[in-house]
Queue: 4 jobs
Job 1
Amino acid sequence: MSGHSKWAKIKHKKGATDAKRGAAFTKIIREVTAAAKAGGGDPNKNPRLRTAIARAKFINMPGSNVENAIKKGTGELPGVVYETVLFDAYGPGGVALLIEGLTDNKNRTTAEVRNILSKKNGSLAGAGSTAWMFTKKGFLSIEKDKISEEELMNIVLEAGADDIKSDGSSYEVTCDPSVFEAVKAAVEAKKIVPETAEITMLPNSTVKVQGDDAKNVLTLLEFLEEHEDVQAVHANFDISEEDLEKAAG
């Protein structure tokens, strides 16, 4: 698995108790509103909304917040209209970045993202410059002590998954986004809660970085992810587990 997927897992685990939970609330509320606006307010008919609600539950967001965000998206309550933005960029060591955001002012967000990149040894690239290096995939991480590899393989492959790999203390499952819900449901039917379950952008190949470059890449990611308009940052770096743990610690 790429270093960034492992980093995402570490950040996801920290998210439930992170002191910056308020910022996480803001990001998820925006995603819930945008998802409801794009696909309707019924999570049973709107996979994007269903995923956003699951994220909200993970960080213990009050149900009333989620309900109001949905109503703002469907127009039942007045609210801000958010525009989806996508930035191609490069970080230290030639690492490719794909930055997803939701904003009510594209010009402001573009300027602020460019400023973060400039200050942290990165640079904004032309549209499409890095997007081709990533593929949208369903991704699940399941702890090994919850199930055997053979049993998990039978479950996820029957549900339509593409691949399962062993990585450290976890199994990593990838699938086409169209079958993500089915694969996730098949796993959860066995009373197994994945560490991570999301539709994300996985790199087609990775760039190995270490030393100062590794440290600088992770610092850049943290600054980008802290920006309230940024929903997700995808990167194709490969950093040793030791360096990742140091950064997370």
Note: The mean pLDDT is 89.
Job 2
Amino acid sequence: MIISAGRRSDIPAFHSEWLFEKLRVGSVAVSSPRNPRVVRTVSLAPDDVDCLVLWSKNPAPMLGKLCLLAPRPFYFHFTLNDYEPEIEPNVPPLAERIETFKRLSGAVGHERVIWRYDPILSRPGRGVEYHVERFARLARSLSAFTGKVIISFMDFYAKTRGAVERFSIEPMSLEEQRRVAREISSVFSDASHAVAACAEEVDLSEYGITSARCVDPKLVQKLSGRPVPCAKDKGQRPLCGCAQSVDISAYGTCRAGCVYCYAR
């Protein structure tokens, strides 16, 4: 069983002590996101966990305590953008997050830290050229500390409509998406680095960009040293390539406050 922690909240940033306690106990109660009264107990015992996939914009609270994740295999999705505080109000300053990224990679190895440049959003003064320049700058700082970046363009949800309109966030055209992807690939894709796109309709294969499997059975098998199920997670979006996992996070518990986030 693959455990996701989590798509609905930044557990490493805001609830790491809770996670460590649940790992110590060996189980966690998880409510259904559709019906909170439906609760299941999920085992976190080492023998039951093929891998722990952690998603965060700021895993700094876990540094120094990463040994508590053992003996379970694990890896991190580290989302690192360069947006103004009004867009991502409760994340640390950029320089601090870059330093955390480097420290995390140094502690667990670059293969266990996947960089997410996500979401790529467009607003006045923050179009194609902005992302090309900002991504290249970040890549210069991070390329030695990860082997992969996953990109994703902004998705628009009914619950974020007000915030999106307030900050004049607009969809990127397919041509703009291709231009951004082409430049990102030219900067980052080489023998040591890969670029993948998360659940995108636009075909970016001509730029060497593959379709992402963020919950990646090949990486899980490599880290765990044992075969793992590869079936697609039917609970995710149709274009999502992730393997099946159990998410232990909950909506309404993330304090990052990102204006674009579906989990607010």
Note: Strands lie at 2-5, 27-31, 39-43, 51-56, 74-79, 113-120, 148-153, 194-197, 210-211, 246-247.
Job 3
Amino acid sequence: MGYNTALRGYTAKRLEEIGSADLLVGIPCYNNEQTISHVIQTVTHGLARHFGGLRCVILVADGGSTDDTRETARDFQIKPWQEKVVSIYRGPAGKGTALRSVFEAADMLNVQACAVVDADLRSITSDWVRCLLDPVLEKGYQFVAPVYLRHKYDGTITNNIVYCLTRALYGLRVRQPIGGDFAFSRDVAEFFAGKRVWETDVARYGIDIWMTTMAITSGFKVCQSNLGVKIHDAKDPGQHLGPMFRQVMWVLLSLMEEFEGYWKAVRGSRSVETFGFEGTLRPEPIEVDLSGIVERFQTGFGHFGSLWKDLFSADCFEEIRRAAELKAGEFTFPLETWIRILYELAATFHAWKRNRFKIVEIVTPLYYARVASFVRQTLDMSSEEAESLVEDQALKFEEEKDYLIRVWDERRDVAEPQ
């Protein structure tokens, strides 16, 4: 079934009654009854404190929560001069469809600026609202990505894949391309809403990287805003992030195909202007089971080693084989090998016409190998020192880009699994 809008009738009618607004804050949610009140409270206070003279609307875009998220959101009292709409979106389940409803609402209300914040945030402050919206309202930016102070092991997919690839491909140093909390102008909301992606994986789980990539490649004016520490329901990279790796990689690789002409012409990268919070707060520590991560990689080698030998170059496979024999306390997986694996993966994904999700699935254990190596390398580093290492990694992704283009163009005859 196709959906020509993510807004249900009652939601659209409520927005029509409101008529117009200056600012919209969207909160996509699903089973967040424990945190939704705090997020709404912070947003309503932030809007009142920093944008008291503007007409503001808060849209809670729910995915059909089975707990009391919607009831809690409806019952929470916001400032009397603000509006709140609690809705269940229409379309495929996922954050992307929730944000589609926010894009459509921003367009309907003809807002000047719109922000979206995650519903599981515990560290959000009223200043987040200002930091996200000010660059659009005061500086003329059209898309604002977040920057957070994060623990070195929070965001391993961003640190080891998404930031590095996005920077090398598209030439902008957007530190958190899948950060979750963004702001944008009405014309960008209209542009996003009009794209024909809402029956695809973008609607389910790929919305953040899709938004960032579309903003960059479409020439919108992009900046970042530092929001300080992000405390949310962080996940142990060994326990929970395999499915996220597969989802994010699928969308990343699909976008590479769509924008091949763009990224092939890009060399190097440039920084983007950064606004917002300045301070020295410390993020919460995250415990990582290094032995468990290494074990997941080694189990994967046992299952998929013969396939990896066919998929990857001889040099890469030799490093994979060597790493599979190492114990956790001595584990290393070279960055140069990891970069070439990702670039070869992209080229093979591009060459295959079917079974494409299979290749992403079978390389997931290699992500664990890289995370384990990153953890070992940064055991005695502060989060700030680890951040410098991430920047060094990203630069090496740029330096290896010619390799990507070469294997992308050459790898046309890779045998597909049956």
Note: The beta strands are 23-29, 56-62, 83-88, 113-116, 143-149, 182-185, 222-229, 274-276.
Job 4
Amino acid sequence: MSRPISIAVHGGAGTILPELLTPALEKEYKHHLQLAIDTGHQLLSSGESALVAAAAAVSVLEDCELFNAGKGSVFTAEGQHEMDAAIMCGKTLEAGSVAAVTGIKNPIQLAHRVLTHSEHVMLIGKGAEQFAKEHGLKFENPEYFFNQYRYDQWQQLKGTKKFQLDHSEAIRDRKHGTVGAVCLDLQGNLAAATSTGGMTNKQYGRVGDSALIGVGNYANNKTCAVSCTGSGEFFIRSVVAYDISALMEHTGMSLEKAAEKVIHQRMLQEGDGGVIAVDRFGNIAMPFNSAGMYRAAKKNNEPTFVAIYK
């Protein structure tokens, strides 16, 4: 019997309701989720590592301006785009992370390069950008990251101390637009990758959960790979990604039960969002406590599951 392969991706969670998306926009979201799944699955099928497949799937979502990561990143208080990303290998527990980087086309590829070409785990700001230049990572000018919708969001908050998670409550589209992927490869190895543009109008170099290993991103071959999306401060305080793994390792709980318990019971009440996770057997879990989560999954050669709402 051949080994299983599995992949799941997400594009953010929050107040995502059918009445907030036109049929055309819903179709576009699903198309890019499918594209990310196809990209990662093809690599896994060809024998590529979970680490490479996860980074490639996330890169697809970073290249789409619909999601708050890479090209679609929101504006900071200074009118810039500060991005965070992290990636982790379940086999070695090696990880790479970057935070508050500007101009990087694909922050997840930079995080991957930190893992493979440095002795560090996390690089931030100008230092991370210098590392990117030395390693030939692609940069884009500010115009590449400009999106009128994101700009209009920022204008509503510009000059205030307020910030928001991707979309404002006022327009009833409160969405945490992190993107992520989790994979199990033919060698039985797990990996997780996560990337985000953070909060609209964020100040002081704020960093959320996505760049933090064990919080927004975690992988361990003993248990599972997890990528989170949600209200970052609460995910940080609840150490969500590692908590799922720890429940599995120390109590023997299944992936599905551990993920459900953390999202619906153990995470601080005010925190909303969700996770995608895959275990060493290829089982996939995608619980969330918000109205919706952009998500997709595929195991072996089964049909791809793509969904947005509850």
Note: DSSP finds nine helices and 13 strands in the chain.
